[in-house]
Amino acid sequence: MSxxxxxxxxxxxxxxxxxVIAIAAVIGAIxxxxxxSFQALAENREALIALRDQHYALxxxxxMAVYVAIxxxxxPGATIATLTGGFLFGVFPGALFNVTAATIxxxxxxxxxxxGLGDRLVAKMETSTGRAHxxxxxxxxxxxxxxxxxxxxxxxxFFVANxxxxxxxxxxxxxxxxxxxxxIPGGVVYTWVGAGLGEVFARDxxxxxxxxxxxxxxxxxxxxxxxxxxxxxxxxxKGART
Length: 242
Known about the structure:
Helices cover 81% and strands 0% of the residues. The protein is mainly alpha-helical. It has one domain. It is globular. The chain starts with a helix and ends with a helix. The model has no long low-confidence stretch (mean pLDDT 84).
């Protein structure tokens, strides 16, 4: 066995969770797209309601476990899962179940990326003097604002907001609470849409998933974005004056 084998084995072990996630994501994208869809929810709604009514606690645990897996393995169907939470459990506690499960799943992929890639990348950023180091320092100076912004801005893909913090060395607990709080606005909106799916099913229609871009919804979310960005703006102004 060569001297490099232990180091290579250690690197493989560190990256194993990330490899598993990548493989699961590819397989899920191919095999689960039709099973985690609005049509699948419509076809199975009566069975899901019956399960909820007969075994409420089991339904909650099962739903959250599936939601965590969808997020952690970057599987298709996160939006459908959020709608299902609203459909089965109402706006509240459905929104709480949705946000909690999404946060747990996001934390899982955050830890996998940080262990597999992030720690070494952050170490390189710390010792470098180039643009990578400047990027890390810029994020560090405005970490809370940046974390909230990537959660609040609807255009930022959820998986990107899970991976980027791990690559720049964000602390775990800071990632967890900014994720939980930052996804509440969007989570509540889609849970609310899900809570009204009974009428949508009755009319044989599909829900309006673009509702988050309606002015009355997008306006307050952009207001929260502006509030999150305010410290960055104030620091920039202060730096320009000095």
